[in-house]
Task: inverse folding
């Protein structure tokens, strides 16, 4: 597929729109209008009074074209870019018959658009009309976005200006799942690095603790993520959590979460360590309760192992447990996904996060023929979850999207009232500073004017360890941004 540009260079957004309909890689050509084969062509032409926008698409034997004109006083760059993308969207919709549920909303935080309108005083109908007219979003996703925004807003209002969150990264897993695109490392390949990694991570927590005290900041939420935090042994996990307790005042923390994750890493001792050291929320993630699908994606545990880990957590007194599910996994069927959903509902965790399979270049699945996933019933799975979970008492409270997600769907967190994950909301809303510690963690600084500055830690454990002192010098930027 060739993407042609004439009179403009709106490459990023144009490519994002084309990918809603056509997977794969593209050839980009500038100042050419005619070309052989499948093409998406667009043109911007300025006149004395009007700016003329054109789109022409050809896929196989099918073609479509669309034009639009703007008064020059309205034809700023952002408007022209949006209108060209809208014309391409209409053409490809006609040719392919595909109707992306989020329309032209290609960003990862669609709920923010809805939230902004609600905060401006728009009622539900006004919100829907504005977003549907501009982005051609389907009603089903507008409803989902509106419900999520309404559930989020009271929780965001309870946030103080001097509070921050702390994210601690443990980037190790027993083995890499076939769909995984995170920076995570198998225990076998990284085993020798783990002691030094834990040592450096404890030092970084100490350094961040000093910064927090010096700037008179308060910790709102703490989140251990990864990877799989419970990949390390119980003693190492306890050392990390005690380092947090010794260096950071957690007396005002509203949420302390450890993403226990995979059942093949969860032991009674690790759960006890997590419980005794202050964490009240954990994740026990089945992804699926189909053993064959678990085998296909590279999981080294069974569905029963997940159930056993969940029951052990309940026995230890955890009363805030999340379970992650993935719609569209290879080898899964609609019936099998429904069994997973029903089993999860039966277990009754406080929150259920429904992810849609995303196939990224760094994942093993990307090496396979992507076309095999075209008929994957992911949308049926997700739509059924959106229908059933609110009926059973779990309401949507956070939502995000990723590139290369099947059928351009989304990831949705559902929770019982009062059990929503504050950290998940804050990371999506981008209104709270988050200090990141550990490999591949990102510190996100938000100043009093709302400007965001990021400090990225090194992606790989050996870099993090070998360049630790150099990395810590970058943390001085925190004083410059927040000290003002």
Result:
């Amino acid at each position: 597929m060739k993407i042609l540009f004439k009179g403009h260079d709106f490459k990023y957004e144009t490519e994002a729109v084309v990918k809603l309909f056509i997977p794969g890689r593209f050839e980009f050509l500038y100042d050419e209008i005619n070309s052989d084969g499948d093409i998406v062509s667009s043109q911007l032409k300025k006149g004395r009074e009007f700016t003329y926008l054109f789109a022409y698409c050809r896929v196989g034997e099918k073609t479509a074209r669309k034009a639009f004109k703007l008064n020059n006083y309205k034809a700023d760059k952002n408007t022209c870019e949006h209108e060209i993308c809208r014309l391409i969207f209409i053409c490809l919709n006609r040719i392919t018959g595909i109707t992306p549920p989020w329309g032209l909303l290609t960003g990862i935080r669609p709920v923010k658009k809805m939230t902004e309108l609600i905060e401006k005083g728009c009622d539900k109908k006004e919100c829907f009309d504005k977003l549907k007219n501009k982005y051609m979003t389907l009603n089903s996703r507008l409803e989902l976005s509106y419900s999520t925004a309404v559930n989020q807003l009271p929780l965001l209002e309870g946030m103080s200006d001097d509070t921050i969150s702390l994210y601690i990264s443990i980037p190790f897993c027993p083995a890499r799942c076939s769909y995984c695109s995170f920076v995570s490392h198998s225990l076998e390949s990284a085993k020798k690095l783990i002691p030094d990694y834990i040592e450096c991570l404890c030092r970084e927590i100490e350094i961040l603790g000093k910064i927090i005290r010096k700037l008179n900041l308060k910790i709102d939420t703490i989140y251990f993520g990864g990877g799989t935090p419970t990949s390390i042994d119980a003693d190492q996990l306890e050392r990390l959590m005690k380092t947090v307790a010794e260096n950071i005042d957690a007396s005002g923390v509203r949420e302390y979460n450890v993403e226990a994750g995979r059942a093949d890493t969860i032991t009674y001792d690790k759960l006890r360590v997590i419980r005794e050291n202050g964490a009240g929320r954990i994740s026990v993630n089945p992804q699926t309760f189909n053993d064959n699908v678990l085998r296909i994606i590279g999981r080294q545990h069974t569905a029963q192992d997940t159930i056993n880990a969940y029951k052990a957590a309940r026995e230890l007194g955890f009363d805030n447990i999340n379970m992650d599910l993935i719609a569209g996994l290879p080898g899964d069927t609609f019936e099998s996904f429904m069994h997973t959903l029903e089993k999860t509902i039966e277990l009754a965790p406080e929150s259920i996060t429904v992810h849609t399979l995303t196939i990224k270049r760094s994942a093993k699945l990307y090496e396979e023929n992507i076309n095999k996933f075209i008929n994957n019933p992911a949308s049926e799975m997700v739509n059924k979850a959106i229908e059933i979970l609110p009926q059973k008492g779990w309401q949507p409270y956070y939502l995000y999207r990723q590139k290369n997600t099947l059928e351009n769907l989304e990831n949705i967190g559902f929770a019982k009232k009062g059990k929503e994950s504050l950290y998940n909301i804050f990371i999506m809303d981008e209104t709270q500073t988050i200090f990141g510690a550990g490999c591949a963690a990102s510190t996100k600084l938000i100043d009093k004017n709302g400007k965001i500055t990021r400090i990225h830690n090194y992606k790989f454990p050996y870099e993090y360890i070998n360049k630790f002192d150099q990395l810590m010098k970058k943390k001085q930027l925190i004083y410059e941004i927040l000290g003002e």
The first helix runs from residue 11 to 19.
